[in-house]
Write a structure and sequence with these properties.
371 residues, alpha/beta, Aspartate Aminotransferase, domain 2, Aspartate Aminotransferase, domain 1, 2 domains, 7-stranded mixed β-sheet, 3-stranded antiparallel β-sheet
């Protein structure tokens, strides 16, 4: 699904030097590369503050801690996402409240959010899924109208451009009160281990985020908040500093690969190619087909037999997962999510993908439906 070795080979001299420099300095924790990376990412995103942390899950948890969400507060999000988005809500003893997704973008359906708001609602967590933004024009209006915090989960959409109603653009993760992301190796901007970050334009929030990831300290051994130990180590920051220089190139390579798939797969009644919204570009963290005729699993097995990887993101909505059964949701509560879970199949897309490989993938997919 990804070719991390091929990507590394192209920049290995720079990567090896960056790692060796950290080894020579022995500044493994909070070394200078961490601040340099945060500054560079801040400039790239055009946001006031970037605070690094250990992973994307921690970023979501720390964001909620910094906004002083209290046990019993309700947080609106989507049931069609990786578990981290909801996991941290439950860990903090908050209440996840789900809103169904759009049938084409797979992002939270902004038109359904207001009906889920109650007197206990404190925040909305839109997930920018697969590489394009949720409808932040509507979500920002809802946030302002009801006085709700917005925490953007940008783990799959770092670098995506969002188009405001007035024609201006912003990077995903910089629109709400706090944005979060992950640098898991397979992400569009991936480290060689775990890593994460938070973004905000608010100086007060930024100061609190920076303290919480460091045990709640603003100054050493004086604890202003209950915090956690969540750090981006210096070696990962040094690697990310190198890769950030190529980040635009990486996203363009994914877009080119997606366009090739589009051209070779678009006209087919058996499945649909990824939808593009009008308010966001798409950086294709995943290239996800929607398979009709209840043949998704059969196609996946066929591709596996041909040596072609594919993945189902995600096979079951979170509202139907055993660990979250006490939320009181039932099958049928989110029909779009449940339908999409039966149909989505992601095929290989990455920075090193060759046309000959894509040609084989597309030929085998079409062969399956024509047999």
């Amino acid at each position: 699904m990804v070719d991390l070795k091929g990507q590394y080979d192209k920049i290995k001299d720079e990567i090896n030097k960056a790692i060796q420099d950290v080894l020579n300095s022995s500044a493994y924790i909070k070394g200078p590369d961490v601040n340099i990376f945060c500054d560079n990412l801040q400039n790239y995103l055009g946001v006031g503050h970037v605070i690094s942390c250990a992973n994307g899950t921690d970023a979501l948890q720390v964001a909620m801690m910094a906004l002083d969400l209290q046990p019993g507060d309700e947080v609106i999000t989507t049931p069609f996402t990786f578990i981290s988005t909801v996991e941290v809500i439950k860990l903090l003893k908050l209440k996840p409240v789900f809103v169904d997704i759009e049938p084409d973008s797979y992002n939270i359906d902004a038109d359904k959010i207001e009906e889920a708001i109650t007197a206990k609602t404190r925040a909305i967590v839109p997930v920018h899924l697969f590489g394009q933004c949720a409808d932040m024009n509507k979500i920002l209006e809802i946030s302002e109208k009801h006085g709700l915090f917005i925490i953007e989960d940008t783990a799959q959409a770092l670098g995506t451009d969002f188009y405001h109603n007035d024609g201006s653009t912003s990077k995903a993760g910089t629109l709400g009160h706090i944005g979060t992301t992950s640098f898991f190796p397979s992400k569009n901007l991936g480290a060689y281990g775990d890593g994460g970050a938070l973004f905000t334009a608010d100086e007060v929030i930024a100061e609190k985020l920076a303290a919480i990831v460091n045990h709640g300290m603003k100054r050493r051994y004086y604890y202003d908040y209950v915090g956690v130990n969540s750090r981006l180590d210096t070696i990962q920051a040094a690697i990310l500093n190198v890769k950030l220089k190529y980040f635009g190139e990486y996203n363009r390579a994914r877009q080119i690969a997606a366009a090739y798939y589009d051209d070779h797969l678009r006209e087919n009644k058996h499945f649909s190619v990824p939808f593009r919204t009008k308010y966001s570009n798409h950086i294709f963290h995943q290239y996800t087909l929607k398979i009709n005729d209840n043949r998704r699993d059969e196609l996946k097995l066929f591709l596996q037999e041909k040596g072609i990887p594919s993945m189902v993101y995600y096979p079951v909505g979170i509202h139907l997962q055993e660990a979250y059964s006490n939320l009181g949701y039932s099958r049928g509560d989110f029909p779009v999510t449940e339908d999409v879970c039966k149909k989505v199949l992601s095929i290989p897309i990455h920075t090193e993908l060759k046309k000959k490989h894509q040609d084989r993938v597309t030929r085998k997919i079409l062969e399956f439906f024509n047999k």
